[in-house]
Amino acid sequence: MATITAATGSVLPDNRNFDVDIDVVLTSSSSTYEWTTFDGSRITLVGAFTYPGADPTGSVAQILIDTENDGDTDLTIAFSSLQPILADLISGNDDLFWTAAFSQDNTFNIGGDAVDFSFGPYTPFEGHVGSNDTGTLTGSGDYHLDGEFVRDGFVGGNDVVTIDALDPNLSITVNGEGLVTFSIGEITGGNDEITDISAAGAGNVTIRGDFSSSQMHTIYGGDDILTGTNREVTLTGDVRWLYGNATILNAGDDILNGSSEDDALYGDFEYSNSSGVIVNGGNDILNGHGGDDVLYGDHGYSSSGANGAVYSAGNDTLDGGVGEDTLYGQYGNDVLNGGANNDTLYGGVGDDTIDGDGGRDTADFSQSLFGVTVTLAEGAVDGSAVGNGTDIIRDIENVVGTSVNDVFTGNSGNNVFTGGEGNDTLDGGVGNDTASYETAGSGVTVDLSIQGSQQSTGGAGDDTLINIERLIGSQYDDILFGNGSDNAIDGGDGDDIILVSSSTTSFPVPGTNQFDGGAGNDIIGFSLTGVGQGNLGSNHEMSGGSGVDTFVFETYSSDYDVDLEGESFYTVSGTYIADLFEFENISAGGGEDVLRGDNAVNDIDGNEGDDTIEGRGGSDVLDGGGNSAVGDTLSYSTSSSGVSVNMTTGAASGGDATGDVFTGFENLEGSSNADTLEGDAGANAIDGGDGTDTVTFTSTTGRVIVDLQINALNFGFAVGDTYTDVEVFEGSNWNDQLRGDTADNIFYGGNFTDRLYGRGGDDTLLGEAGADAIYGNAGVDTMTGGDDTLRDRFIYFNTVESGVGTGNRDIITDFTSGEDRIEISRFDANSVGGGGNDVFDFIQDTAFSNTAGELRFEQDAAMGTTVIQADLDGDGTADFEIELTGLVDLESTDFLL
To answer: Cα(635)–Cα(628) distance, rounded to whole angstroms?
Structure first.
């Protein structure tokens, strides 16, 4: 018996690269024999030695190994009784050294750092039986530990290893037996018990009951017990890696216990890369316990190089425990129990018992070469699956079929059937059942209205659906139709089309539908290009999923309200129809619809009908489509800042209009802020909304007449236009006439010679460029001729058009003497004289002389104004005044008297 100890922080030797160099002997006394190895380590033998010849003889009590030759002992081997010194111990061959040192039943406690180490003979002689080791790993480094290194004729010891790592974030690999064999022979693994009790951490724990690899041997695996506790573990009952030819593998009957984390458990061989291999699997018990585990009863994987392999599997018992587990029975008559949560169970070849237990569980037959007939029973009652054997099925909700023709019959639960390739018959029975095409090799077309008859899906054979209410599409571009019932359809990946029905005529009121486009650019809704008609129903839930998705109801002619930001679909009268999630685009029907986007990039098509479309934020593409009467309206009513929209040029900027592209609109609605709006040559209804809004005609190709009182008098691009809540009008680059109403109008004439009529209200009239004629008319008006050298005329028809006193009289802001003219000749200068239209007498800046018909001006230097006054009745006071901005010296030629 030997006790092997390595303190925490020690550096253990790598015995695979270890050579004894006996040429460098450091000490040779009666109690100590010490030398330096080829790799620089220091070996010290403590015992009783004599030197009758070149080599010592005697006995050994301890072996001390200083791996780094720094004076600190890294590994101590203490023998329970004196061992005779063997020539192998100091022979200069690392294989013989380790054989002599560790051919004991060892007890070890290892706390060293990085470990790549074996506690067993490296080159045992033929028929050697390995040591029965018991030990604990408590180090803080990465471990790779083998119970014994083995060759042919070896029988492994029964080892007990406990892993309790100081740093649970570092990795550990433990093999019950050895690493490599090179010659033909027979090897038997020991019955090992290896347990990891380390605290929870990120370290990878790999435990194999027997050999890490083998070549051209007959191998008998031991009956091992491998257990994880707190960390993710990979447990393999027998050989993990096989290569070479003519290997016979007889697996042991192992017990594998997973941890509370996500584990991988292999009852027999995790990997095979050999030709001519004969594999006899053991009867293993695999317990996943907690976490989402993967359990293989037999061969975890066979590579493409494993030609001619012959498998005779064991009858395994797999229990997933808590978590969403995947269980592979593989070969043999296995018992699979998924445990709690949603598990996937592969029975494989043989007569298996497949029990999903708790959760929604799946029986998967996709690895079968033969079609299966599956009948699900209720709950724990036995159902059946006939294909690669005759299986018993319990507590299974979902079934995955083969690549050939399958027949599935559901129970009263909500089943999910994946037929796979082949011409499958899927009968859901009672409940809301799903046909899934997730595994299809190309896009599918599936119509739930075709029940009981075969339909060509395109990508997954010619299937017959019976009592199927729900669909899951493929990862490609699918076309999926409901049947007007309570359908749930998930498009999956790809650019899918999902509609309530494929009917081209009316169908009954649909139930509550749930549609999800999944990934891809999907089209989802009620109708598309003439397909799908009838009553829309209510309480639907539709989601576009990821991608750029479109909500459609193209064949419906009633009036609907779609709000992508509000995630809703209503009738305009307020009847709820559907919740809409994750849609970017809308394609509407033929009614007078209200269509609203969100702050993303939207593509909204009103199609037929007089629609109101509001893109909201984002660079939207908006199409009013056709119209029937009043036309389509482009709306920016909820924009948080003013917009500038030109229906003639298509330009859009500011607020929610930024980046928008639009077509097919007749009407325009601004925001609650200051907007600039321009129609086109058609009849436009323009609503400025709140704020001080401007309608401009700067893009027109000819002059316009805008008459806010008599629309019938409008001319040019203004013909047929109506204006609501518009405060400012700007003319074109031609000879325009802008005529106000009783409101306070603001007119800009624009370029060329314009006529501006304020009519009632306190108007602001700006002629701008050109020789303009400005008529303030009633109200207290502010008039500006424009900054140019041409004569602007300010024309009055009656004295009531401008009152007396500050706040009552009109103001001309830019009158230029000798250039502009004020025309007051159209009313009588003498209100008390005889008939006729008398002419004013301009008396410059002198005082009135109590003579009717006098016209004068006076300057107020303090105010910086000039006031024109007229006395019509000869009482020496002004009856009519006009205020000029600035101190202006007036002449009679500045007036038409």
So the answer is: 18
Token code pair at residue 87: 């020539």
pLDDT at residue 566, as a whole number: 97
Residue 52 CB neighbours (<10 A): 7
- Type and span of the H or E element at 497: strand 497-499
How does pLDDT run across 390-437, given as a tens digit for each residue? 999 999 999 999 999 999 999 999 999 999 999 999 999 999 999 999
Residue 5 parent element (H or E): strand 2-6
Select from 338, 327, 488, 491 the least CA-distant residue to 414: 488
Residue for token pair 């690895």: 367
What are the φ/ψ torsions at residue 641 (nearest 5 degrees)? -145, 165
HEC profile for 513-575?
Answer: CEEECCCCCCEEEEEECCECCCCCCCCEEEECCCCCCEEEECCCCCCEEEECCCCEEEECCCC
**CA neighbor of 339 nearest in space, from 407, 272, 266, 394:** 394
Q: Which helix (H) or strand (E) covers residue 100, if one does?
A: helix 94-102
- Rounded to 5°, angle at Cα 698 from 693 and 699: 120
Phi and psi based region of residue 608 (left: phi greater than 0; alpha: psi -120 to 50; beta: remaining): beta
Between CA 473 and CA 484, with CA 479 as vertex, the angle to 5 degrees is 95
Give phi and psi for 863, each to the nearest 5: -90, -15
What is d(CA 785, CA 769) in angstroms, rounded to the nearest whole number?
Answer: 8
Six-digit token pair at 692?
Answer: 């001080």
Cα separation, 668 vs 431, whole angstroms: 51
Task: List Cα–Cα distances, 308 to 10, 220, 250, in angstroms.
Answer: 48, 21, 17
Classify 532 in phi/psi space as left (phi over 0), alpha (psi -120 to 50) or beta.
Answer: left
Amino acid at 467: N
Terminal Cα distance for the chain, rounded: 136
Task: Show the tokens assigned to 108.
Answer: 């070890």
C-alpha distances out from residue 895 to 719, 791, 816, 822, 824, Å? 36, 12, 12, 5, 7
Which burial class, exposed, middle or buried, applies to 832 when counting CB atoms under 10 A from its CB (0-12, 13-18, 19+)? exposed
> Which whole-number Å values give the CA distances from 412 to 356, 361, 530, 848, in the listed order?
16, 15, 37, 108
Instruction: Report the relative pairing of strands 793-795 and 278-280 from DSSP bridges.
Output: unpaired
Computed on alpha carbons and rounded to an integer, the radius of gyration of the chain in Å comes to 48
Write the CA distances from 868 to 499, 791, 803, 851, integer angstroms: 76, 19, 11, 16
Tell me which residues of the chain have a pLDDT lower than 70: 1, 14-23, 86-88, 90-96, 98-100, 102-106, 108, 111-131, 133, 135-157, 166, 176-187, 209, 211-220, 239-249, 269-278, 299-313, 505-510, 530, 532-535, 834
Full set of structural domains in the chain with CATH: 806-896 (2.150.10.10)
Residue 124 has a pLDDT of 43
Q: Which two tokens stand for residue 229?
A: 């506790």
Which residues are CB-contacts of 267 (< 8 A; sequence separation ≥ 6)? Answer: 237, 238, 251, 254, 256, 281, 282, 284, 286, 295, 296, 297, 298, 314, 316, 318
DSSP state of 894: G
The pTM (predicted TM-score) of the whole model is: 0.79
- Given the structure tokens 């509407």, which residue do they identify? 588
User: For the chain, percent helix, then strand, then coil, each to nearest 5?
Assistant: 5, 35, 60
Tokens of 447: 């119509």
Distance between CA atoms of residues 164 and 172, nearest Å? 10
Q: C-alpha distances in angstroms, 659 versus 622, 637, 645, 757?
A: 11, 17, 11, 37
Q: Cα dist. 424→367, 374, 387, 414, 420 in Å?
A: 16, 11, 14, 19, 8
Distance separating alpha carbons of residues 670 and 644, to the nearest angstrom: 9
From residue 584, give the alpha-carbon distance in Å to each of 192, 495, 552, 599, 808.
61, 14, 11, 10, 56
